[in-house]
Amino acid sequence: MSHPEDPGERRRDALSHRLLRGGTEPDPRFTLANERTFLAWIRTSLAFLAGGIAIEAFTGDLFDLPVRKFLVIVLLLLGMLLSAGAAVRWLNVERSMRHRAPLPLPLIAPLVAVGGAIASGVLVVVVLTR
Amino acid sequence: MSPAPAAAPCPHEDPGLQPERTVLSWGRTMMAFCTAAAVHLRWLPTHGGFVLVLFGLSLSLAGGIYVSQRIRYARAALGVAGEKLAPDAISVMTTAGACMLLGVLGITAMLFF
């Protein structure tokens, strides 16, 4: 348990105080590496969001409106889930490092695989049955 | 001819350049937000002015990252030099929250505008 008078503790903002209780500050390099992994997931999430918008904007001649709507909503929902999952994973990894515990499994990795497979499967079926 | 001014000393001695890599990673994320903002504009002819909210949100996030880069680097470099760095929970949660909001607003635009 960290001491409240620890200078490192005083540097932390109110939100990290609330979210990350107890334990000790990990090696700063690990904290920065965790932040970079979070950012990589956020960019993946933004790719899904922008991909959804691009499908609606550029495939008007290719797909009917219901198919377009389905694909856009699936991709936007995936993007949202990924960004939420990225924040939760950042928090869980930071907590594990503070308590010297094993790192949690990345549950958002199968989410990307399954979501991407569903969106691609729908695209293949629609293109083949046109 | 006067000699060239000496370069400012690096505030940390990490051979892995972790602060630089992290700031560059934020920079790539900033560019991704700019790209998302530009792609949102493609919805303007079909979904109307509501799309400007999405455009503005993406661009604000990119701008927020841009103006905080120098502070972010100083914080990370000093943290690595002093072997103590507080996690940046505010930036992480703001970025993730903004992405979720972009998704919600995108679905709203798709269904109702």
Automatic annotation (TrEMBL), chain B:
Pfam families: DUF202
Membrane topology term: Multi-pass membrane protein
Domain DUF202 per the UniProt entry, residue ranges: 14-76
InterPro entries hit by this protein: DUF202 (IPR003807)
Keywords: Membrane, Transmembrane, Transmembrane helix
Keyword Magnesium tagged: no
Annotated TM spans: 49-68, 89-112
Compartments, record wording: Endomembrane system
Top-level taxon of origin: Bacteria
CC annotations in GO: endomembrane system
Protein name in UniProt: DUF202 domain-containing protein
Organism of derivation: Kocuria tytonis
